[in-house]
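Changelog-adjacent note: as of this version, every example in the card shows the full chain rather than a window. The one below runs 265 residues end to end.
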Amino acid sequence: MFINLQAYLTFARLAFQRQNAYRVANWAGLFTNIFFLFFRASLFESIYPSGTTIGGLNVKQALSYVCLTQAILMVIPQWGVIGVDEDIRSGQIATHLSRPINYYLSTLSQRLGSSAFFLLFRTLPILGIGAFVGFLFLPTSIARAALFLLSTFLGAWIAISIHFLAELSAFWMESSRGIKMLFNGLINFFSGMIIPVTFFPESVRQISRFLPFEYTLNTPTLLYLDKGGNVLHALLAQLTWIGILWIVCTILLSYGERKLVVHGG
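Full-length structure tokens:
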């Protein structure tokens, strides 16, 4: 199947520009992220007795974990709306599906465009502040930093696909809010946003390995810290989940398209 890459890049560029237009909201969001950076860092410092290691992370690595997850929180969305359910409820989905553009890829491109904005204007400032105050240690090499960026991109793709999947439930339910809240809770817990996944009991870790959520925030963060195990294995796991979620989203979208009824159209 031919993919119109130029069209999807245009979607991403327009989403970047649209996000840039909300200056006050962006500054407020950055301030909020910085506040929670210091709040979470203080909390983690308080639970670490001197010289101990928890879940394979010492206090310096744990603070870096906090800084990194806080920095890429908006790049790899843990909650929010991507617009699929609104398109379904309004009937606008019929127009999108009639275009010679893949709806899943166009939605993905738009959210990745927003992620690119957050990478520049949310991630970099927070990493800079974290490094300045001593929360974050710098990557050991340029290759390690590049690996982190690649894994962050793959994690964002997975997270967006999860939200896309949740919002597709609007085809069959009056409101997708309940499903979205369930998915938001799962991704927040299993992604390592609340506490590092390495802190989980082994029984919970075994469950987490077979779910897509930890491959969003947790994987790029541990790769940055050189705690992610085999690098190739980690990237292949992310790519595998991208493929699985792409297929599932496509299948469910196809079933939803069959069910679609647009009044008066």
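Structural remarks: The first strand starts at residue 53 and ends at 54.
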